[in-house]
């Protein structure tokens, strides 16, 4: 077992940086975030599948492949390494526009200094790795501990496409707020939606039987039709069958995420609305000393990034290993880094309090390993020590 301490390194500069100074020193932190370079720029992806064009065009498939790439084995080693080098170069260029939230964590927290941080976390692909079986997308104990720690310092909400019951059974932290079905579990949908959904769910379950690998997941106010395990040549057929089913339900709309088709009520409700609703419900609306951080990986999280960007409040952080158009300001490569950010956020707040009180701080949480956060020319060094040794 280990314990850790957060100490101020006396040899390091301690200047308190104002947001204006940060904006000058770190142009990538300015709002709104700079646009991606031209070759990455595209119209905001229209995620809603248009029923009128059922069966025509593959643009949605291309978009899905970009959002959720599958690792393809190349027959030739040289072409595989050329493709990998091109992807790396594209990612390097993208990450300059959306810098790592981990490497820039001190700047993020400096901007948040004196404000009430509110943490919003997507589930799949953010807190849990993407896996083939949606019923087995478990989060690790380390991640749970990281989220628990951050929630002990800041109001924390899980915002998921899954139903509240399911996502909370995965997260297993009753102290959190949950916004399931893309936020619709916070506030119930209109009368009648439930009845339609039961019929649609049954019809969808009937059709997926004809497409091997596909499956329906009932997310209470939304339905997911998964096709991660369906061969690509059947994707269009599956989408057409799904479109046929929901054609009779004008109050439902069809959208898509990471190898998933999502059927939801046509009401204007998304993760951005859920974020606004939660901020308001928690009593944080209308205060400019509130600093929401929203971490997510999917195109559905873009609605929340957009809200933060439009409000010029807090930061959106995208979890992605590949370059993609986003409204987020920062990035993380994978869910594991999200745990590091959660830990860093609460450590940084503890550091601010500790330094204000001129006292050394011993973090209550148990972590393994050793690390620093921020670069060594920055203010704080996070020291991990063996249990019982001097701080
Ligand atoms: O908003 P989220 O919490 O990210 O939920 C969005 C969808 O996530 C789940 O599907 C995704 O993760 C699965 C497990 O890793 C993966 O198999 C699937 O391909 C992904 O799309 C969930 O099962 C869906 O119901 C959610 O709508």
From TrEMBL:
Name the needed cofactors.
Answer: a divalent metal cation
Keyword terms of this UniProt record = Hydrolase
- Looking at the keywords, is Hydrolase present? yes
UniProt superkingdom: Eukaryota
The record's listing under PANTHER family reads:
TREHALOSE 6-PHOSPHATE PHOSPHATASE (PTHR43768), TREHALOSE-PHOSPHATE PHOSPHATASE C-RELATED (PTHR43768:SF32)
Q: Which SUPFAM superfamilies match?
A: HAD-like
List the EC numbers from the record.
Answer: 3.1.3.12
Q: Give the family per the record.
A: Belongs to the trehalose phosphatase family.
Q: In which pathway does it act?
A: Glycan biosynthesis; trehalose biosynthesis
What is the catalytic activity of this protein? alpha,alpha-trehalose 6-phosphate + H2O = alpha,alpha-trehalose + phosphate
Q: Show the coiled coil region(s).
A: none
For this chain's UniProt record, which GO biological process terms are given? trehalose biosynthetic process
Q: InterPro entries from the entry? A: HAD-like_sf (IPR036412), HAD-SF_hydro_IIB (IPR006379), HAD_sf (IPR023214), OTSB-like (IPR044651), Trehalose_PPase (IPR003337)
Report the protein name in the record: Trehalose 6-phosphate phosphatase
Kind of enzyme, top EC level?
Answer: hydrolase
Gene Ontology MF term list: trehalose-phosphatase activity
Quote the function comment for this protein: Removes the phosphate from trehalose 6-phosphate to produce free trehalose.
């Amino acid at each position: 077992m280990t314990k850790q301490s957060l100490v101020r390194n006396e040899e390091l500069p301690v200047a308190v940086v104002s947001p204006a100074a940060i904006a000058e020193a770190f142009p990538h932190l300015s709002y709104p975030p700079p646009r991606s370079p031209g070759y990455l720029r595209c119209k905001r992806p229209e995620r809603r599948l248009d029923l009128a064009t059922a069966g025509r065009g593959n643009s949605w498939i291309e978009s899905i492949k970009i959002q959720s790439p599958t690792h393809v084995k190349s027959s030739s080693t040289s072409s595989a390494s050329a493709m990998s080098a091109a992807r790396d170069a594209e990612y390097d260029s993208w990450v300059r526009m959306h810098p790592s939230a981990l490497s820039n964590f001190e700047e993020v927290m400096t901007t948040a200094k004196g404000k009430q941080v509110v943490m919003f976390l997507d589930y799949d692909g953010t807190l849990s790795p993407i896996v083939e079986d949606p019923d087995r997308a478990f989060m690790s104990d380390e991640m749970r501990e990281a989220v628990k720690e951050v929630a002990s310092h800041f109001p924390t909400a899980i915002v998921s496409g899954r139903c509240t019951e399911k996502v909370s059974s995965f997260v297993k932290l009753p102290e959190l707020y949950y916004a399931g079905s893309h936020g619709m579990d916070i506030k119930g949908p209109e009368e009648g939606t439930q009845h339609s959904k039961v019929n649609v769910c049954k019809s969808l379950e009937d059709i997926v039987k004809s497409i091997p690998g596909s499956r329906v997941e009932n997310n209470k106010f939304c339905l997911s039709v998964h096709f991660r395990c369906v061969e690509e040549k059947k994707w269009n057929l599956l989408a057409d069958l799904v479109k046929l089913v929901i054609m009779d339900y004008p109050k439902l709309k069809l959208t898509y995420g990471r190898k998933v088709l999502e059927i939801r009520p046509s009401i204007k409700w998304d993760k951005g609305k859920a974020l606004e609703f939660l901020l308001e419900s928690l009593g944080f609306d209308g205060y400019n000393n509130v600093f929401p951080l929203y971490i997510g990986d999917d195109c559905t999280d873009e609605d929340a990034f957009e809200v933060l960007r439009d409000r010029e409040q807090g930061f959106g952080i995208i979890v992605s290993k590949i370059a993609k158009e986003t409204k987020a300001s920062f990035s993380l490569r994978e869910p594991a880094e999200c745990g590091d950010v959660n830990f860093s956020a609460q450590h940084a707040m503890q550091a601010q309090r500790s330094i204000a009180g001129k006292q050394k701080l011993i973090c209550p949480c148990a972590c393994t390993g050793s690390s620093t956060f921020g670069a060594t020319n920055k203010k704080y060094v996070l020291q991990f020590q063996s249990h019982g040794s001097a701080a």
